[in-house]
Amino acid sequence: MILRAKGCPGDSHRVGEGTVSISGGGPRRAVSWEVVVMPSGPSGGAERVHHVAVFNVPMSGHVIPTLAVVRELVERGHRVSYAVTAQFADEVRAAGATPVLYEVPDPGEAPEDMVVGVTGAVGVNVAALPQLEAAFGADVPDVVLSDVYAWAGPLLAARWGVPAVQLAPTHIPYDGVVRDFYGLEDIAQIPGFPQLAQALEEFGVPGGVHALTLAPPKTIAFFPRSFQRRAQTVRAGEAHWVGPAIGDRSFQGRWHRPEGDKPVLYVSLGSQFNQRPEFYRSCTQAFQGRGWHVVMSVGADVAATGLGPSADGFEVHATVPQLDVLAAASVFVTHGGMGSLMEAFSLGVPVVVVPQMAEQRVNAAQVEELGVGRHLPREQATADALREAVQAVMDDPRITGAVARLRRDISTAGGAATAADIIEKTLADTPLTTC
């Protein structure tokens, strides 16, 4: 028997009904309920298909870490709706979810200033919110999963009276995070946040922007606790570090290591801040004729413009299937995005981090603190400095050992399966369900 909102579709036998007042963190509301007996499944137990809604922002580094969790939930029999823009619809569909598309104005090139970026994220959410409320309509989910910048998720969860879980592809807020990420003393100083605060009040989300952004009630983070910056100061009500959720990436294509015994060096600045032709030329100068096979992922804009004739031993692509390349790589020169770092460390690859913005500088500091690579500031990334840093990472047994320890932390953190367990426990702890 299960307790659920009255009127849910599906075969069942009602054995009781009534009304209860509930709250999902917002205003209390009356919900008519019924107790039903569900038909038995193949194993003899009652089958319960939950509706899980995922809300995300249109950024690869935020969408891709969630896809294996989506696949895991779908394989466990749940129905997943995924709110995202059209550019990610194919990836979401391949993971087994139903895309719920929203439209936002073209944001243009991603800003390096995180204050500007987060202000833009407020605009994305404000534009998406009415579209998504209308799109879900009466098909209210049982639980909402939302990215750290997808605030439409907790807003609608409060309105619907359902639990919300935050999905964090970056550090859970810690003491000093506002200064480190934004260069501010108070997160409420972000220009777009008065508008966000107004929406929180309207939707009945308690605590305002400080609680929402700095002390989320339940968070699943896609990296191990050992990589969390100042983990002892994290303020989340319930924090779960499950490590990277790495699943099938066949939609990205395949890459095969060339014949020969040259070590592979992989160079990528990610999907947002990759328009750096001068950096890629420095890499060519640094490693040409030095015994490496170099794979560079440079983004569509740089690839279309061209970097001149390709040097011997170099592959230059707009994008590559990153996991395939990392599986063969000896060193990874990276911007230091959390997803890229976790993929490298999960495969035992040390890194040279050349951060492009504040969040990546925090990651670079953590890399050095754990001894799993080197931090090379962007303005110092000359050909000589790049060559020296890569060789140092290759030759240092302390770095090799530290990477092995972090790789063990990742392998025992649980990944997508543990994330799905946490989500299912959240559902189990919420006895009154919607359809």
Automatic annotation (TrEMBL):
<dbReference type="GO" id="GO:0017000">
    <property type="term" value="P:antibiotic biosynthetic process"/>
</dbReference>
<dbReference type="InterPro" id="IPR002213">
    <property type="entry name" value="UDP_glucos_trans"/>
</dbReference>
<keyword id="KW-0808">Transferase</keyword>
<dbReference type="InterPro" id="IPR050426">
    <property type="entry name" value="Glycosyltransferase_28"/>
</dbReference>
<dbReference type="Pfam" id="PF06722">
    <property type="entry name" value="EryCIII-like_C"/>
</dbReference>
<dbReference type="InterPro" id="IPR010610">
    <property type="entry name" value="EryCIII-like_C"/>
</dbReference>
<dbReference type="GO" id="GO:0016758">
    <property type="term" value="F:hexosyltransferase activity"/>
</dbReference>
<comment type="similarity">
    <text>Belongs to the UDP-glycosyltransferase family.</text>
</comment>
<dbReference type="GO" id="GO:0008194">
    <property type="term" value="F:UDP-glycosyltransferase activity"/>
</dbReference>
<feature type="domain" description="Erythromycin biosynthesis protein CIII-like C-terminal">
    <location>
        <begin position="312"/>
        <end position="411"/>
    </location>
</feature>
<protein>
    <submittedName>
        <fullName>Macrolide-inactivating glycosyltransferase</fullName>
    </submittedName>
</protein>
<dbReference type="InterPro" id="IPR006326">
    <property type="entry name" value="UDPGT_MGT-like"/>
</dbReference>
<feature type="region of interest" description="Disordered">
    <location>
        <begin position="1"/>
        <end position="23"/>
    </location>
</feature>
